[in-house]
Amino acid sequence: MTKIQLPLWLGVVLFWLCAQSGYANDQESTKVFGAYTVHYSTFNSLFVPADIAKIHQLVRAKDQTLINIAVQKTADGSPVAAQVSATAKNLLQQLKTIDFKTIQEQDAVYYIGALRHTNEEVFHLDFVILPEGETQPLKFRVSRKLYTEP
């Protein structure tokens, strides 16, 4: 497998995880904001193969969840570059800032953030996404119970 092929595998893995993981089942994973659609998912970092994690400098640990964001134009599904930020607040009101890294592929852009947690810890995630060329951010909140076992 060449390095050119690996980012494509990351995209395939991330979208498969969104569809298959226990974190995404029975939970909304898309928000539509008029001209933009935001896809998001959370999954344990151990789901990412070690070689892929190494290439993208992602930490694999049972107590770390990855947050995947992709922004598309609603009309045609084309990828949109954006500034992505988020905070996570647990039930004890402890606030964590989530830093996102951009993973650019030929036909897609993903934003990946990491969040350390304890088993069955509940977080309220507040997202602020500013699509390139826009002045008004897209904001939304989701809540997730996170697990240390994938």
Folded structure, characterized:
There is one protein chain. By secondary structure, this protein is mostly beta strands. The chain has a single domain (5-146), classed as Immunoglobulin-like (Sandwich). 15% of the residues lie in helices and 46% in strands. The protein has two helices and nine strands. It has helices at 5-20, 50-55, and strands at residues 30-33, 36-44, 64-73, 82-90, 95-98, 100-104, 109-116, 121-131, 138-146. The strands form two sheets. It has a five-stranded antiparallel sheet, with helices on one face. Strands 5-4-8-9 form a four-stranded antiparallel sheet, with no helix packed on it. 26% of the residues are buried. The model is unreliable at 1-6 and 16-26 (pLDDT under 50).
List keywords for this structure.
four-stranded antiparallel β-sheet, 150 residues, disordered N terminus, five-stranded antiparallel β-sheet, Immunoglobulin-like, 9 strands, mainly beta
In terms of DSSP E residues, the strand content is over 45%
Mean pLDDT: 86
H and E order? HEEHEEEEEEE
Q: CATH architecture, please?
A: Sandwich
- State the end-to-end distance: 26 Å
Radius of gyration, CA atoms, in whole angstroms: 15 Å
What strand line-up does the widest sheet have? 1-2-3-7-6
Count of helical segments?
Answer: 2
Supply the CATH superfamily name: Domain of unknown function DUF4426
CATH class (first level) name = Mainly Beta
Shape: globular
User: What is the third-level CATH name, the topology?
Assistant: Immunoglobulin-like
**Uncertain ranges:** 1-6, 16-26
Count of DSSP strands: 9
Secondary structure class reads mainly beta
Largest sheet at a glance?
5 strands, antiparallel
Tally of separate domains: 1
In helices, the fraction of residues equals: 10-25%
